[in-house]
Amino acid sequence: MKRDILTFLLFVALAAFIWYGHAMQSVRNTHVPVLIQYTGKPGSIGLGEPGLPDTVMIEVRDAGARLNTYHRDPLRLTIDLHGYIHGDKGTIHVPSDALRRSISDILQGTSRLIDTRPEEIRCHYFTEQEKSVAVVFDGTINPAAEFQVVSGPALNPKRIKVYGEDRVLNQIDTLRTEYLTLNELMDTTDIRAALVTPRGIRLGTDSVDLRVLCERFTEKKFIIPLRVRNLPEGSHIRLFPKEVEVSVRVSMNHFSEVQAKDIEASCTYSPDRTDKLDVDISYTNPYITSAWAYPGVVEFILE
């Protein structure tokens, strides 16, 4: 019994193999898509609805093996619109004979084109107004613990061209990225950020590159003498204490590049203050991201 089943399965497999070989050699028709990419369209040219088709379905005749390659690897056709656009408005018209000729050129030599759907490409075009608009980041950036943002978010490009009617463009000053939440950043982060498209306009590009640089930070401490500003002429002031401890936050990569000379601690005298002054910290080193003093308030005697 078992032997009979194995014999039967062997004949079934053999029959399937013979049928498959025959199918691969037999000539027949099938429908396959042709993916279309357009070049040569100026950025200021808008298209009417429904626009240019991105796919044309064709009926092609060839041996089954060749037809299978079209299904596995779709045909791709590039159409240069440069010769179809004349003036500020009109109709892009790729006639059936030109479309069939272009498709036939990308078919294998044994394949014969039977039909195309649509038979021709036709689309109304018009010239839109142009405006350069700044791009801004919209979102939140959260570095990982003990890390800080030292650069960014930087967008590239910073400005893009948008197209549309004057009344719409006049209402647009900036474009925002889609809202992004970037968490636990510890190094340079590069992503592609999509742009929000306002109603009634067309973007020259629908996304921009976004870069955020994060580095591990640490604290560095200095003893800084206090200076007094706005002191009345001929007056002398005594501060208690005369110096404060200033802590600065700096990335570890630039720790050695931050010195005491980069920091100034000062108080501003005011006749309204009788015994205490607030300590202000300023710094010139770009690698310092924040600074604070201890104590933050000092006592004084005016002589």
Outline the secondary-structure elements.
Layout (H helix, E strand, L loop, with lengths): L1 H24 L1 E13 L5 E3 L7 E9 H9 L2 E6 L8 E6 L1 H11 L5 E6 L3 E7 L1 E8 L2 E5 L3 E10 L2 E6 L1 H4 L4 E3 L3 E6 L3 E6 L6 E3 L3 E23 L7 E4 L2 E9 L11 E6 L7 E3 L1 E4 L4 E7 L2 E6 L1
Parallel strand pairs: 1-4, 8-12, 9-13, 16-19
Antiparallel strand pairs: 1-3, 2-7, 3-6, 5-7, 8-11, 10-16, 11-15, 14-16, 16-18, 17-23, 18-22, 19-21, 20-23
Polypeptide structure, described:
With 303 residues, the chain is α+β, with helices and mostly antiparallel strands. The chain has three domains: 25-127, RNA Polymerase Alpha Subunit, Chain A, domain 2; 129-216, RNA Polymerase Alpha Subunit, Chain A, domain 2; 217-302, RNA Polymerase Alpha Subunit, Chain A, domain 2 (Beta Complex), CATH 2.170.120. It contains four helices and 23 strands. It has helices at residues 2-25, 64-72, 96-106, 166-169; strands spanning 27-39, 45-47, 55-63, 75-80, 89-94, 112-117, 121-127, 129-136, 139-143, 147-156, 159-164, 174-176, 180-185, 189-194, 201-203, 207-229, 237-240, 243-251, 263-268, 276-278, 280-283, 288-294, 297-302. The strands form six sheets. Strands 10, 14, 16, 18, 19, 21 and 22 form a seven-stranded mixed beta sheet that branches. It is elongated, with a radius of gyration of 36 Å. 16% of the residues are buried.
Shape: elongated
Radius of gyration: 36 Å
Number of strand segments: 23
Going by helix content, strand content and strand pairing, the class is alpha+beta
The name of the CATH architecture of the largest domain is Beta Complex
Order of helices and strands: HEEEHEEHEEEEEEHEEEEEEEEEEEE
CATH structural class of the largest domain: Mainly Beta
Uncertain regions: pLDDT < 50 for 5+ in a row?
15-24
Largest sheet: 7 strands, mixed
- Relative strand content: over 45%
